[in-house]
Design goal:
single chain; 402 residues; alpha+beta; Heat Shock Protein 90; 3 domains; five-stranded mixed β-sheet; 65% helix; 11% strand
Length: 402
């Protein structure tokens, strides 16, 4: 329902809600046989209309999981209340069958399955009541063919499930497509920015760095001054490294031709390279690779991808922790996993990975992760992050196997 509200104007939402509330109130006052008696049954009908009306009205302002569950339960109780208060109205049974359809509008798998389970549980209880207690006086249209009505109910729940399954799958595909478009736009913008940065900044940096190197070698300066020159040169090297990252994004995709890459050999080479870096943080890298793992990619770019991911895992780990790296072949894919036991990330932080200039490191630029996403996409791969605060992070990278 949140997605619908975001797409449509809130004014339209409130108009629709006002119409629904008006219909519910009309059901209270127009030809209602219980209105003259004004007993507990009628009051319960009034109470459910009031609760649902309030929930629908405040939903856009208080969109929480708890309110969604409350609306789902309140809708179920409302329709089952109508079913028992007005047994002569056979159309109420149809509303019972389609109670889970309301939860589809929330696009929340947990709420839908909860609604489906709750509806099935309630209908079983009420069918048991009709078969054993009522036995026809009130619900004769159900009691005459209770098995057939039960089968119809089950069929309706199956239909609703398939509607949810297809709708949810389509929304997920649209979400992935939107993220891909957003990532592609980020790459394009950063690529354009890279050309400007390289042209405007790199040449002046080279000139300044050259003079500093001359001063560093000049014997007329004291060792303290030379130390300052060395520090400035190191900072210029850092700036050049950032510019180089920009340029690697701006390079044409067809510049480096793909080749057959032995994943085990590359992983072994990268982990050997990063072992010493891990030792600085008292971390170890544990590697597990099956033999038959080959993909089509550029070896240098593939190494760059692995170095970025494994290096991030080391930096995210606590002292003494291990980083687990594994690769295996599953059918037509090579699956690479990098698991750390660090602080983990929130869902918002995971969703922001790959965004230019977004980094969880104090001196990070976010370009390394952006380049990693670009490399994975370039060779038809996928990269997924599973993380939670305090539980570490698992990065899963998959490529088509050859």
């Amino acid at each position: 329902m949140k997605e619908i509200i975001n797409t449509l104007n809130k004014k339209i939402y409130y108009i629709v809600v006002a119409i629904v509330i008006a219909i519910m109130f009309m059901g209270l006052v127009m030809n209602n046989p219980l209105m003259s008696e004004f007993d507990g049954g009628y009051l319960s009908h009034v109470l459910m209309v009031f609760i649902l009306s309030v929930c629908f009205w405040i939903y856009p302002k208080k969109d929480t999981f708890g309110l969604r569950v409350t609306i789902t339960i309140a809708a179920a109780v409302y329709f089952y209340t109508l079913f028992f208060l007005y047994p002569d109205t056979w159309s109420n049974f149809i509303f019972l069958c389609f109670i889970p359809a309301l939860s589809i509008l929330f696009f929340d798998k947990k709420i839908f399955y909860f609604s489906l389970f709750l509806n099935c549980l309630l209908i079983m209880c009420f069918f048991g009541y009709i078969a054993m207690v009522d036995q026809g006086p009130q619900f004769s249209y159900i009691e005459k063919d209770i098995v057939g009505n039960l089968i119809n109910f089950i069929a309706s729940q199956i239909i609703i499930y398939f509607i949810f399954y297809l709708t949810n799958g389509r929304i997920k595909k649209q979400q992935v497509y939107y993220e891909q478009i957003q990532q592609s736009g980020n790459l394009k913008i950063t690529g354009q920015l890279a050309a400007a940065v390289a042209h405007e900044i790199r040449n002046p940096l080279t000139v300044v760095k050259g003079f500093l190197q001359l001063f560093e070698q000049d014997s007329s300066f004291s060792p303290d001054r030379k130390g300052h020159f060395t520090l400035m040169i190191d900072e210029l090297n850092t700036a050049e490294q950032v510019i180089s990252q920009f340029l690697s994004i701006a390079k044409p995709e067809n510049e480096k031709a793909p080749e057959t890459v032995n994943v085990k050999q590359v992983l072994q080479s990268v982990t050997d390279l990063l072992h010493s870096y891990g030792h600085l943080h008292d971390n170890t890298i544990e590697l597990t690779v099956t033999e038959d793992c080959s993909i089509s990619a550029n070896t240098i770019e593939f190494k760059q991808l692995l170095i970025n991911i494994i290096k991030n895992a080391i930096e995210a780990s606590n002292e003494g922790d291990s980083v687990f790296v594994s690769a295996r072949r599953e059918k037509d894919e090579v699956i690479i996993k990098v698991v750390d036991q660090g602080q983990g990330m929130t869902e918002t932080e995971v969703a922001s990975l790959g965004t230019p200039f977004y980094s969880l490191k104090s001196k990070g630029t976010g370009l390394g992760m952006m380049i990693s996403f670009n490399i994975v996409e370039k060779y038809n791969g996928k990269m997924d992050f599973q993380s939670a605060k305090g539980q570490g992070t698992t990065v899963t990278i998959s490529f088509p196997a050859i």
